[in-house]
Sequence to fold (131 residues):
Amino acid sequence: MSVRVLIADDSAEYRDILAGMAGSLGWEAQVCADGASAIETARRVRPQLAILDIGLPDMDGFALCRGLRALPGAEQLPVILISGTYRRDEDRLRGLSDGAIDFLEKPFRLAELISKAKALARDYGGEDTAR
Fold:
């Protein structure tokens, strides 16, 4: 079964990197540049994993994480937050308290993100066996 992953990042470069990562795993990526389109996309496709940048143009990733997990059926949606500007311990703790499972700082090692994403997909029922 293919994992449906929602990617929200205002950087075209990071959207391409993250979509490429999902594609290399055989996953279906839904890519958005802002929070509003991410919420609308999530309503339509019901993602099994979300990778969200915190610095989005219309809302921060903390609010997006809360908004996604408030959608019917998405209460347990595993979320990884990523950020190049929010790097303090308080930001990390805020993300976790807002429902994120993990937090990575940009630039991150792609191998680390892949490992975390595969584990979340496996542990949260997105995929029977992680590739």
